[in-house]
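Teaching assistant's notes for section 4

Start the section by putting this record on the projector. Ask students to predict, before seeing the second block, whether LysR family transcriptional regulator will look compact or extended. Collect guesses on the board.
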Amino acid sequence: MFNARYFRTFITLVETGSFTRTARRLEMTQPGVSQHVRKLEEYLGKPLLDRQGRRFVLTETGRRAYDYALKLFAEHEQFRHSLDDDSLDSGECRLASPGSVGLMLYPFILGQQQMQPGLTVSYSFAFNGEIVADVLGGRHDLGIITEAVRHPDLDCEPWHQEPLCLVVPADFAGNGLADLMGIGFISYSGGEDHAGALLKANFPDFRSMSHFRRQGFTNEVSMVLDAVARGLGFTVVSRVVLETSPWQRQVKELSLNQPVHETLHLVMRAGEQMPRRYVRLLEGYREQRRHERFGFGEGPERQEA
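Reveal the predicted structure now:
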């Protein structure tokens, strides 16, 4: 008969390397430890230990049983925590976002996991369409997307805003739309929409992104500033992308009069209540973004347009 206690005793025996220490740790008798191991061997039909006097080594079955037991109890704890939606500091968090969001949100959540070991995090970087499909399919509990979606089986609501930044090479000396058109645009998924919105709000003579020479494209927004740093063109990204970029010292942000923001939306299956651990993580991140003040004078230079 399967008995989880036998596996627990066996894990402790392997970790301590001693029947005596195992008995002491589990508050059992030494014969009781031996009985648990013998019962487990009978259940599996194979020996787990190669006994050498008072010492022992694991057989191949013993090694596999130990690995299985560790996985068994880890999954048990994960399952137990996942049932407690009212817990603030335990349970699994399954969420996804585009890379532009995850550059800072994922490290923030990992920091929270370090402080709250009961949390487990499964985080995926994906495009909006993939995120929506995975939330619908139950592969994620929560999605963060950059465009609102309407679907009868989903709830979607605005969550957070990030400023958009006009980023140019560090040696860019221009200050007008014609100068930007002269160096061309580095695009990414959603980049032209962001650029169009920001340029339209700040340059009265702006008409369309189709008038800009397209200097390149990447589907990974975190890499787009590499091209800008090399002087290949300009781009428009959210502030979080600029702040986390390894190339932020090789580019500069042009200061504009009219701010434009990217709105992030939360998407969940319709009718489901968000567990409290998600609420705290999301609010904690927003609070951090409100209070963080990256020293742009120490990072990317800002220039008046």
